[in-house]
């Protein structure tokens, strides 16, 4: 290789390396990289942790260098950037951006989302930087900027959408009136038009003058975008439009000014094709700008709920400041009807707060001193003060918005097929257009052409069209009808609507793959404690023997247990207080390890414990033994009580089921989902709980670390398993399951593991998550079927498959109308998902037609 | 655009133009040998259209291949 050629290939990269601690590490990295073919120079800086490499780009690349560095035990950290990319209009645009960015040295992954207008890029800093990535996308003809969040994002998005709408509205105002005039002029000699259409409108020069601004003002965007892509080796649907409009316009122009050139003459001046083709494409763009983005309305609604101002106490005075200026520790005052500005803890006052926008819970929640309040929820009745605990990007709302945005920027596995097809579609369609042209030029025209040929839904006659004009028409129509816009919108628009619908109901999907996986679930494993049950023991039964009163038994048991710190004792004290019984103090208290407790109260000796305690004290428990066995069979912990050496009764304590556990399990079983329960508890207690809730498969006595293994066993049986549990304790099992569902996380969603986060502590949301997943996937499948059917039927029709039998052709303008309608219909079909409600939510909403009593403010 | 990119673009343009011209030549040859009589306009118009479509087909295939080979 000559020196000149070598110099041309020389490139430099600065790769960050982590884990180097001494000069030996430096030498090791330098030696390894220098040994690579094509690497010229390596300088490792230990202090900055950077490795500067000069290499021949045709022999070595950054990914190989990174692999070598990782192979010798060091890390090369990746950086991630989330960009807003505006101007993309179809799956081919997505493929175009992905292809261009992926081709940059140092970029490891790119995920572009069309409806979210986002691109998530992972790269090795030093090998490439954010500015270069943005520049690369901008060079393709799209706007690229770093994604912002919160109100600023809302404002920018609104501004960009408004700009696009204004632009396409202007195009509509130019394209449509002129196109209608062109159409009237073209058909001036037909039907009743000669009676009222002035003759000059049928003049070809006038028609040319009317068509030219349509092709070059509203149509210019397609020429510009397609050229930007083409010169970088990328194609998109703009190219289809540009070739279609360009070909129709050029032929019409030639036939106008040089009618004898042999292109069919003035009788084959398809001005209306060029004009209406542009008008329909612009209409499609306009409708897309109107409807796209509505699928993520849930997020926008959440953002718009955010309070703009907050009233805080500063220096003892109430002052109004911007909500984003509230600091942690500030005391915030909230009045009735106001939106709560940030998250915090109530310090003073009482009210009911509508949290529906965060949790999906329709009933207002009471708040008093010590209660947690969430920003963006609405105070209904009273006034209160709270101390700000989370502000800015830390608030629950900010976390939820980020999570949903991340989910919407990801791709569902089902989208791979659409991406693959769309990515190869444009080149494929041009090959097809070439084949169609060759066929009709060399074979079709001579074999099938008839001067009586017409376009479908048009009286236009093709008698004067020659072989070239005829083959060109079919070739152009094939290009126009083939646009894969619907294919590009089918999956991501439904994912956006589905994840938004989840957020509305307090169900947060962490990614598009979670939505798809949840739709395929056929087994759900519930963790018992804290998931199916409340997670803390409660008094379930109080039984008094003859001569004793139930309330006295409970009260004295509570008094006896009051000094004890045992969880069962605490449950009895809570139970007594809940029933309004006064729990006094014992005169004397003694814990008897392994047996129970003994206390004296107002001269009475009270014993509370197990059978052995009673045997030891020689107390006859009579028929209480049978009752006790029955309670134990139900999975409860039963304690015998004796007063002054006489058996007085039994108190049973158990971890009780959550309110909606049974109905949720029933609904899952109705949906054909196998339900299992997993717990570390003994089998008898576990089975008792399972019986109550209607679960037949019980995995008992499983240690926390073995829960993941149990999930694997179910997966080996071919089941798609969801694990529902505590997002922190059950993390390994949640990670192993096909879908990990963390329940009852409250509003600190960022800490949770799992693929789906349920904000509320309501098991019915597991059903809701599966229903939303299934509804979203149904919508995706409908969209994909529609998009594929459209292209599969449209292309042969446009290529002239019916022509030999019917003499009818699809005109370019009809093709562009079908193309515009395909993407609009997919978007509208997706918007129907907005009406979907999970079954339990539907049931909750039904009674709310009647006015519900509002919680009263404390006087 | 860096020097390497310009070089890749130059090399690619030669390749896709030659390939497109080859397809266009095939079209022209068929117009002579298939037995039908074509007007000059049909022949030239056809060649232009075939050349444009061929360029559109070859550009996205050739550019990334050459770019990868030149830039690594």
Q: What is the strand and helix layout of this fold?
A:
The complex is a heterodimer of chains A (859) and B (72).
Chain A: H1 3-9, E1 10-16, H2 23-34, E2 39-45, E3 50-56, H3 62-71, E4 79-86, H4 91-102, E5 107-113, E6 118-123, H5 130-139, E7 143-146, H6 150-186, H7 193-196, H8 204-216, H9 220-230, H10 237-257, H11 271-291, H12 297-305, E8 309-314, E9 317-322, E10 331-334, E11 343-349, E12 351-354, H13 356-359, E13 365-367, E14 372-373, E15 378-379, E16 384-390, H14 396-408, H15 415-448, E17 454-455, H16 467-481, H17 485-504, E18 507-509, H18 512-519, E19 523-527, H19 528-532, E20 533-544, H20 550-561, H21 567-578, E21 588-592, E22 596-601, E23 604-609, H22 611-616, H23 624-633, E24 637-643, E25 646-657, H24 661-670, E26 674-678, H25 683-693, E27 697-699, H26 707-716, E28 721-725, H27 731-736, E29 739-743, E30 756-758, H28 764-798, H29 803-806, E31 808-809, H30 812-831, H31 839-845
Parallel strand pairs in A: 17-31, 19-26, 19-28, 26-27, 28-29, 29-30
Antiparallel strand pairs in A: 1-3, 2-3, 4-6, 4-7, 5-6, 8-9, 8-10, 10-16, 11-14, 11-16, 12-13, 12-15, 18-30, 20-25, 21-22, 22-23, 23-24, 24-25
Chain B: H1 3-33, H2 40-71
Helix pairs in contact in B: 1-2
């Amino acid at each position: 290789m000559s020196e000149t050629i070598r110099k041309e290939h020389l490139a430099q990269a600065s790769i960050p390396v982590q884990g180097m601690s001494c000069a030996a590490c430096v030498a090791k990295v330098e030696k390894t990289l220098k040994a690579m073919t094509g690497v010229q120079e390596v300088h490792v800086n230990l202090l900055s942790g950077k490795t500067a490499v000069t290499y021949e780009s045709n022999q070595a690349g950054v990914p190989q260098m990174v692999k070598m560095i990782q192979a010798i035990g060091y890390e090369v950290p990746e950086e991630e950037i989330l960009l807003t990319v505006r101007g993309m209009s179809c799956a081919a645009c997505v493929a175009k951006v992905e292809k261009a960015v992926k081709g940059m040295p140092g970029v490891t992954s790119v995920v572009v989302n069309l409806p979210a207008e986002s691109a998530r890029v992972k790269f090795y800093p030093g090998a490439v930087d954010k500015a270069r990535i943005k520049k690369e996308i901008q060079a393709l003809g799209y706007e690229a900027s770093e994604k912002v969040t919160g109100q600023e994002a809302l404002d920018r998005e609104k501004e960009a959408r408004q700009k696009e709408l204004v632009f396409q509205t202007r195009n509509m105002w130019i394209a449509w009136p002129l196109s209608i005039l062109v159409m009237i002029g073209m058909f001036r000699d037909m039907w009743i038009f000669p009676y009222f259409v002035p003759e000059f409108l049928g003049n070809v020069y006038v028609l040319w003058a009317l068509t030219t601004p349509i092709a070059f003002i509203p149509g210019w965007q397609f020429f510009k975008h397609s050229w930007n892509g083409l010169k970088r080796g990328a194609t998109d649907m703009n190219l289809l439009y540009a070739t279609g409009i360009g070909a129709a316009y050029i032929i019409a122009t030639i036939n106008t000014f040089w009618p004898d050139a042999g292109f069919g003459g003035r009788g084959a001046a398809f001005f209306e094709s060029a004009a209406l083709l542009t008008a329909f494409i612009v209409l499609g763009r306009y409708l897309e700008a109107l409807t796209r983005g509505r699928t993520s309305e849930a997020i926008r609604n959440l953002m718009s709920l955010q309070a703009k101002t907050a009233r805080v106490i500063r220096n003892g005075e109430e002052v109004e400041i911007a909500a984003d200026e509230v600091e942690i520790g500030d005391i915030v005052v909230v009045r009735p009807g106001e939106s709560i500005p940030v998250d915090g803890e109530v310090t003073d006052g009482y009210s009911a707060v509508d949290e529906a926008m965060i949790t999906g819970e329709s009933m207002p929640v009471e708040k008093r001193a010590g209660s947690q309040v969430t920003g963006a929820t609405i105070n209904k009745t009273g006034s209160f003060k709270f101390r700000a605990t989370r502000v800015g990007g830390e608030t629950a709302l900010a976390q939820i918005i980020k999570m949903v945005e991340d989910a919407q920027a990801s791709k569902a596995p089902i989208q791979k097929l659409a991406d693959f097809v769309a990515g190869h579609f444009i080149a494929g369609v041009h090959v097809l257009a070439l084949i169609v042209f060759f066929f009709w030029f060399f074979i079709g025209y001579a074999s099938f052409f008839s001067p009586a040929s017409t376009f479908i839904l048009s009286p236009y006659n093709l008698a004067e069209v020659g072989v070239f004009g005829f083959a060109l028409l079919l070739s152009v129509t094939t290009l126009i009808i083939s646009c894969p816009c619907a294919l590009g919108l089918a999956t991501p628009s439904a994912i956006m609507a589905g994840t938004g619908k989840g957020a509305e109901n307090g169900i947060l999907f962490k990614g598009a793959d979670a939505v798809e996986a949840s739709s395929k679930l056929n087994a759900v494993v519930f963790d018992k404690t804290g998931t199916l049950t409340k997670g803390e023991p409660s008094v379930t039964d109080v039984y008094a023997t003859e001569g004793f009163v139930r309330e006295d038994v409970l009260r004295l048991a509570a008094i006896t247990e009051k000094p004890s710190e045992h969880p069962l004792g605490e449950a009895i004290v809570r139970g007594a207080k809940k029933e309004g019984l006064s729990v006094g103090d014992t005169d004397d208290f003694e814990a008897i390890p392994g047996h129970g407790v003994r206390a004296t109260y107002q001269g009475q000796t009270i014993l509370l414990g197990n059978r052995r305690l009673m045997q030891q004290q020689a107390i006859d428990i009579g028929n209480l033994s049978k009752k006790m066995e029955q309670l134990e069979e139900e999975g409860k912990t039963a304690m015998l009580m004796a007063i002054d050496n006489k058996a007085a009764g039994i108190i049973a304590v158990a971890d009780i089921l959550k309110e909606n556990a049974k109905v949720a399990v029933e609904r899952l079983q109705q949906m054909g989902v196998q339900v299992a329960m997993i717990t570390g508890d003994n089998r008898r207690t576990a089975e008792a709980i399972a019986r109550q809730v209607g679960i037949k498969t019980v995995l008992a006595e499983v240690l926390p670390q073995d829960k993941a293994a149990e999930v694997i066993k179910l997966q080996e049986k071919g089941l798609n398993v969801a694990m529902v549990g505590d997002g922190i304790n059950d993390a390994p099992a949640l990670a192993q399951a096909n879908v990990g569902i963390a329940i009852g996380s409250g509003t600190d969603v960022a800490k949770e593991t799992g693929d789906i986060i349920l904000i509320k502590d309501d098991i019915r949301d597991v059903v809701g998550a599966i229903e939303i997943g299934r509804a979203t996937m149904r919508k995706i499948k409908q969209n994909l079927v529609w998009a594929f059917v459209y292209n599969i039927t449209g292309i042969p029709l446009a290529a002239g498959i019916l022509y030999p039998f019917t003499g009818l052709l699809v005109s370019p303008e009809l093709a562009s109308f079908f193309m515009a309608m395909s993407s609009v219909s997919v978007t509208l079909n997706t918007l129907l998902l907005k009406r979907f409600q999970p079954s339990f939510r539907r049931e909750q909403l039904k009674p709310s037609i009647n006015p519900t009593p509002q919680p009263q403010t404390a006087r | 655009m860096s020097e390497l990119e310009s070089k890749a673009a130059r090399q690619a343009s030669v390749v896709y133009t030659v390939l497109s011209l080859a397809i266009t030549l095939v079209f022209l040859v068929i117009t002579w040998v298939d037995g039908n009589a074509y007007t000059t306009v049909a022949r030239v118009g056809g060649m232009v259209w075939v050349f444009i479509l061929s360029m559109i087909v070859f550009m996205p295939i050739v550019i990334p291949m050459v770019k990868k080979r030149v830039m690594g």
